[in-house]
Amino acid sequence: MVALLARASGATSYYRLALHAGDQVRLEAVRSGRVTPLGTASHPVTVGAWHTLRIEVAGTVIRGWVDGVPVGSGTGTLTATGRIGVQTGHATARFDDVLVTRGGPAPTSAPPTPGGTPTGGSPTATPSVTPPSASPTPTPTDTGPAQRSSVVDPDGSGDFTSVQAAVDAVPTGNASRYTITIRPGTYRETVTVPAGKPYVSFVGSTGDPRDVVIVYDNASGTPKPGGGTYGTSGSASVTIDGNDFTARHLTFANDFDEAAHDYAAEQAVAVLTRADRLVFDDVRFLGNQDTLYHNSASVDAVGRAYFRDCYVEGDVDFIFGRGTGVFDGCEIRSLDRGSTGNNGYVTAASTMIGNPYGLLFTGCVLTTDAAAAQTVHLGRPWHPGGDVNAIGQVVFRDSVLGAHVKDSPWTDMSGFSWRDARFAEYRNSGPGSTVTADRPQLTDEQAPTYTPQRYLAGVDGWNPIP
């Protein structure tokens, strides 16, 4: 995303004209971080080319153009004055020929070439967009006129009415970004992005993750039509096997009703990841036990994922697996199981011993819907099948911990001691952050080794952090 900002009164309130993947241009009002669409248009956005953006604010009326084409207009209630600026997300851009004027006619000419003078503007900028540089796979190229995007709409006005149908239409061996825009609705289906379809993006069309929900209700113990049960992995509402997947502004959920079923195995996964270089931005993950199964393709493979401004809820081991994951500025919410002593565990990492990086929570806030104080563990070490080489690695740092977090927040699992795992904290705050003998702390000298960049870099230098 590359955007021009106007009337910015802070980091979370402004008007924005943004170029998005999939040839989408959006005029939006952002108020306290909440995005309100004012207008959208489909317009070719060419990587490496110059585009002219113009945003005009007159009183409460906001208008936008890209390359002289109107994007839309709307009314807003932000401050009457503010700063202008530029913004990028998961992309880099160069801005040239920036012009700010008071009023002026709407642009009618084609975009100027670099070094030229834009036609009018209030403000106007000409950005050249380049993709992120940290990916080991070949630079995606569009080799022909094949469709690079599609729209899912439950009422039939898009290209597809189900998310899986849109995924099925992505060419196998896809080598460039393919954006699936999903319009508001509840999509009750299971979805799998296969390993042979990398570079797929799911984008909620409204910018509000509550408007688009992909949900199903299988549990580990749910009987399969052909016999047997689904098991933990098979219970996932959404499975991501394709590398370089991204998701923004939507909700993944598993709404299995524990009270209505008498299953011995109640694990119910909302999302299972078994791929590398994944980005989840402003995404909600809803479930109870085993909500987010962050894994990798095999015990010898590293599966990295960056979770930014996300919301994850559950009760038992609801963030688990051997994947490498960074949770940056997320809300991690423990649901109440009604216990006065044990309301669950946030993590159950099974990081392989050869991998120095498992799960990192930085700048997060740990909350609860009602769980009693001192009843939730930060985590326990999961050794799948008794694997002695699965030595969980988890760090909570610079985060706010609610009163529901135990003073002794780590605990044993299936006969394996938490003390043999790699658990630590650093500079946390809040009522649940009391430092005790049972809470290993990083030193100031160790802390620089445990940053989002270190966790995600791998051998290819991947860096999805804006």
Automatic annotation (TrEMBL):
Residues 129-139 have a biased composition (Pro residues). PANTHER family: ACYL-COA THIOESTER HYDROLASE YBHC-RELATED, PECTINESTERASE 53-RELATED. Gene3D superfamilies: Exo-inulinase, domain 1, Single-stranded right-handed beta-helix, Pectin lyase-like. Belongs to the pectinesterase family. It comes from Micromonospora wenchangensis. It catalyses: [(1->4)-alpha-D-galacturonosyl methyl ester](n) + n H2O = [(1->4)-alpha-D-galacturonosyl](n) + n methanol + n H(+). One of its GO terms (cellular component) is cell outer membrane. Residues 100-160, 429-448 are annotated as: Disordered. It is an enzyme of class 3 (hydrolase). The active site is at D317. GO terms for biological process: cell wall modification; pectin catabolic process. It comes from the Bacteria. The keyword Hydrolase applies. Keywords: Aspartyl esterase, Hydrolase. This is Pectinesterase. GO terms for molecular function: pectinesterase activity. InterPro entries: ConA-like_dom_sf, Pectin_lyas_fold, Pectin_lyase_fold/virulence, Pectinesterase_Asp_AS, Pectinesterase_cat. Pathway: Glycan metabolism; pectin degradation; 2-dehydro-3-deoxy-D-gluconate from pectin: step 1/5. Residues 151-457 form the Pectinesterase catalytic domain. Its EC number is 3.1.1.11.
